[in-house]
Amino acid sequence: MPGAPAGSGAPGGPAGPGGPGDPGADGTRAFPPATTRPAGEQAPAPASGALSVVVAGGGSAGHIEPALAVADAIRRLVPGARVTALGTEKGLDTQLIPARGYPLELIPPVPLPRKPTADLLKLPGNVRGAVRRVREVLESVEADVVVGFGGFVSLPAYLGARNRVPIVVHEANARAGLANKVGARFAAAVATAVPGTGLAHEEVVGMPLRRAITTLDRAALRPEARTYFNLPPHGPVLLVFGGSQGARTLNEAVAEALPAFTDRGIAVLHAHGRTGTPAEPRPGYFPVPYIDRMDLAYAASDVVLGRSGMTTVAELTAVGLPAVYVPLPHGNGEQALNARPVVQAGGGKLVADEDMNGERAVDELIPMLTDPDLALAMGRRAKAAGHGEADEKLARIVMEVAGR
């Protein structure tokens, strides 16, 4: 099943009705290809009086996808609005953004060194060049507002817009990154996915997601979803995924726990990653390297075992799926914080990476998978803890800041 990495939310994954960038079930799109404009070429100005929004969320899918979800919402709420994306030639910008029908204006990359290195000496010059390019774009598209989503594209966007164009910041993680810490100091509005980011004057709106996820009717789609993955039409299904490369801890836990699951009639849909190793074949076990239709995977499943990146948590709460979250043990502990609200609400459980193994997987998951009432109750709590309208909430904040 070719497509996007499991859980990435990248194009080629969830398909269905939504904003102008959502592909239909057959993968076709309702707009012509967008442009990618290198530095030095001037972007056309929007139609006279039309709202002009610049979004900065390039680099990774985690920054790009919420930016595009908000762009879709702005187009729905303000027909005729022009949304321009800032990005670089690095990362996924040139793949994901034009494919969703939005013009991409390239700026010089400004990598932010995490440790003192020789690259740190290049930072001031790199920033100045990127800021100049940002200002050229803002002037050429007659920007009314800049919306940043963190990452190395956002920092020059914030600095270029400062004192020129109002700024809206969206922070997806429980701990704000450097770019958003800088941008929040002079932003007109600061929106966050979860509370407690440390950014002043934060307004919690949730994580913007594409409509194909937030409008998903799991029950209606279940028969099609079960058929798509060759799953049995009845009985509980456990979905396991850990990103495009899988997750070694999850893969090993599944391999150890698999007999206990399948002996109880639990089917396991396991996205083990392109470089990951599946468990030994047995009836009831359905391994795939990655999943290209996360909407169908969610519809087919009853419970999830996965990491707790913010997009994963937001999608699972949006569709009302209970989960056992195993945070990635790296970084600043943000994945554990991402899952905290839904776990506290009773919509999921949290297990540290070092504590997850086959025995723990059985103990945590089998009660949820063999008690439909428990799974349904946890799913309702998960959905109540989510923010399915985050895209439109943030879009309305953007419109207000732009004076529309």
From TrEMBL:
<dbReference type="GO" id="GO:0008360">
    <property type="term" value="P:regulation of cell shape"/>
</dbReference>
<keyword id="KW-0328">Glycosyltransferase</keyword>
<feature type="binding site">
    <location>
        <position position="291"/>
    </location>
    <ligand>
        <name>UDP-N-acetyl-alpha-D-glucosamine</name>
    </ligand>
</feature>
<comment type="pathway">
    <text>Cell wall biogenesis; peptidoglycan biosynthesis.</text>
</comment>
<keyword id="KW-0131">Cell cycle</keyword>
<feature type="domain" description="Glycosyl transferase family 28 C-terminal">
    <location>
        <begin position="237"/>
        <end position="389"/>
    </location>
</feature>
<dbReference type="GO" id="GO:0050511">
    <property type="term" value="F:undecaprenyldiphospho-muramoylpentapeptide beta-N-acetylglucosaminyltransferase activity"/>
</dbReference>
<keyword id="KW-0472">Membrane</keyword>
<feature type="binding site">
    <location>
        <position position="173"/>
    </location>
    <ligand>
        <name>UDP-N-acetyl-alpha-D-glucosamine</name>
    </ligand>
</feature>
<comment type="similarity">
    <text>Belongs to the glycosyltransferase 28 family. MurG subfamily.</text>
</comment>
<keyword id="KW-0961">Cell wall biogenesis/degradation</keyword>
<keyword id="KW-1003">Cell membrane</keyword>
<dbReference type="InterPro" id="IPR006009">
    <property type="entry name" value="GlcNAc_MurG"/>
</dbReference>
<feature type="binding site">
    <location>
        <position position="335"/>
    </location>
    <ligand>
        <name>UDP-N-acetyl-alpha-D-glucosamine</name>
    </ligand>
</feature>
<dbReference type="GO" id="GO:0009252">
    <property type="term" value="P:peptidoglycan biosynthetic process"/>
</dbReference>
<dbReference type="Pfam" id="PF04101">
    <property type="entry name" value="Glyco_tran_28_C"/>
</dbReference>
<dbReference type="GO" id="GO:0071555">
    <property type="term" value="P:cell wall organization"/>
</dbReference>
<keyword id="KW-0573">Peptidoglycan synthesis</keyword>
<feature type="binding site">
    <location>
        <position position="244"/>
    </location>
    <ligand>
        <name>UDP-N-acetyl-alpha-D-glucosamine</name>
    </ligand>
</feature>
<dbReference type="GO" id="GO:0051991">
    <property type="term" value="F:UDP-N-acetyl-D-glucosamine:N-acetylmuramoyl-L-alanyl-D-glutamyl-meso-2,6-diaminopimelyl-D-alanyl-D-alanine-diphosphoundecaprenol 4-beta-N-acetylglucosaminlytransferase activity"/>
</dbReference>
<dbReference type="InterPro" id="IPR007235">
    <property type="entry name" value="Glyco_trans_28_C"/>
</dbReference>
<dbReference type="Pfam" id="PF03033">
    <property type="entry name" value="Glyco_transf_28"/>
</dbReference>
<keyword id="KW-0808">Transferase</keyword>
<feature type="compositionally biased region" description="Gly residues">
    <location>
        <begin position="9"/>
        <end position="24"/>
    </location>
</feature>
<protein>
    <recommendedName>
        <fullName>UDP-N-acetylglucosamine--N-acetylmuramyl-(pentapeptide) pyrophosphoryl-undecaprenol N-acetylglucosamine transferase</fullName>
        <ecNumber>2.4.1.227</ecNumber>
    </recommendedName>
</protein>
<dbReference type="GO" id="GO:0051301">
    <property type="term" value="P:cell division"/>
</dbReference>
<feature type="binding site">
    <location>
        <begin position="60"/>
        <end position="62"/>
    </location>
    <ligand>
        <name>UDP-N-acetyl-alpha-D-glucosamine</name>
    </ligand>
</feature>
<dbReference type="GO" id="GO:0005975">
    <property type="term" value="P:carbohydrate metabolic process"/>
</dbReference>
<keyword id="KW-0132">Cell division</keyword>
<feature type="region of interest" description="Disordered">
    <location>
        <begin position="1"/>
        <end position="45"/>
    </location>
</feature>
<dbReference type="GO" id="GO:0005886">
    <property type="term" value="C:plasma membrane"/>
</dbReference>
<comment type="function">
    <text>Cell wall formation. Catalyzes the transfer of a GlcNAc subunit on undecaprenyl-pyrophosphoryl-MurNAc-pentapeptide (lipid intermediate I) to form undecaprenyl-pyrophosphoryl-MurNAc-(pentapeptide)GlcNAc (lipid intermediate II).</text>
</comment>
<dbReference type="InterPro" id="IPR004276">
    <property type="entry name" value="GlycoTrans_28_N"/>
</dbReference>
<feature type="binding site">
    <location>
        <position position="210"/>
    </location>
    <ligand>
        <name>UDP-N-acetyl-alpha-D-glucosamine</name>
    </ligand>
</feature>
<feature type="domain" description="Glycosyltransferase family 28 N-terminal">
    <location>
        <begin position="53"/>
        <end position="191"/>
    </location>
</feature>
<keyword id="KW-0133">Cell shape</keyword>
